[in-house]
Amino acid sequence: MEFSDTYKNRLQNSCLQVYDVATGQAAILANIPHVIEAPMWSKDGAAILYNSEGLIYSYNLTNGETAVVDTGAVTACNNDHVLAPDGGGIAVSGNVDGSVASKIYTVQFGTGKEKEVVSTPWSYLHGWSPDGKTLAYCAGRQIGDSLEWDIYTCPATGGKETRLTSAPGLNDGPEYSADGTVLWFNSVRTGLMQIWKMNADGSDQTQMTFDEDRNSWFPHISPDSSKVVYLAYNRGDLEPGEHLADKNVEIRMIPAEGGNPETLLKIFGGQGSINVNSWSPDSSKFAFVSYQENAPV
Questions:
Q1: CATH number 2.120.10.30 given to 13-293
Q2: Is 98 helix (H, G, I), strand (E, B) or coil?
Q3: CA dist list (Å): 28 to 77, 259, 268
Q4: How far apart, in whole angstroms, are the C-alpha atoms of residue 197 and residue 191?
Q5: Are 117 and 156 within 8 A, CB to CB?
Q6: Per-residue pLDDT tens for 230-255?
Q7: From edge to edge, which strands make up the β-sheet containing 37-41?
Q8: What pTM, to 2 d.p., does this model score?
Q9: From CA 3, how far away is CA 113, in angstroms rounded?
Q10: Is residue 143 classed as helix, strand or coil in its secondary structure?
Q11: Where exactly are the structural domains of the chain?
Q12: Could you read off the pLDDT of 101-149 as tens digits, one per residue?
């Protein structure tokens, strides 16, 4: 679930970077004199897509040129988006009327025509199954007297949604494993925000981090299914169910089978730094964004 900040109230410059897992080194691709969020590697490895001011952009890794990605009438995209498994389109959260009450759309590249897939507001996309048939997302739904934030799936062509979680508090960030059998997500059900995984049908929900000093968000499984990177906030910097911008955060990694987390990076960032899956297709690198006020470009 991403409630994007109002860009005009954020004066930071953005630093688009990639981290090489083998060397442990980060490399700067570009300093951009405005806020960008949610970097995501293209399926062919040739570009990195990101969100800025409600539009999706593509940064060419060969020549450094940037182009707008056609999302049809959805020009108020939130900072969560997922490429179609075949690379032929993109799914976005947002709206055609500029409302913050996000819905979910798919857009086929080359046509510029959007399809409204999830029409109920307060729906935030995170996952698209490898077979292309199912979307996974966080959504706020009225359950009895309460607005409950849970993980849902629905057909990628539209249709009835299925609720997968019902634990108290926020459940968010569902992403599919490469074989489509597992969904990784984050949940606050045990007090602090932690990383979890479950079967794609919602069964066998299993806690994967047990950090008592951090709130852990947005797990991203690598394409080779060996490792998971995620964003962590220091405990006390915000409420467990918050994922704010402009905080000192860490990017951490765990083996996909579980184990002790490793802190890879400490940056000034937040929800937009790495809130969609940003692994390179070969699982060797991932992209992220850090911020700096009045940084030189």
A1: yes
A2: coil
A3: 25, 29, 15
A4: 17
A5: yes
A6: 999 999 999 999 999 999 999 999 99
A7: 37-41, 47-52, 55-60, 66-69
A8: 0.94
A9: 25
A10: strand
A11: 13-293
A12: 899 999 999 888 899 999 999 999 999 999 999 999 999 999 999 999 9
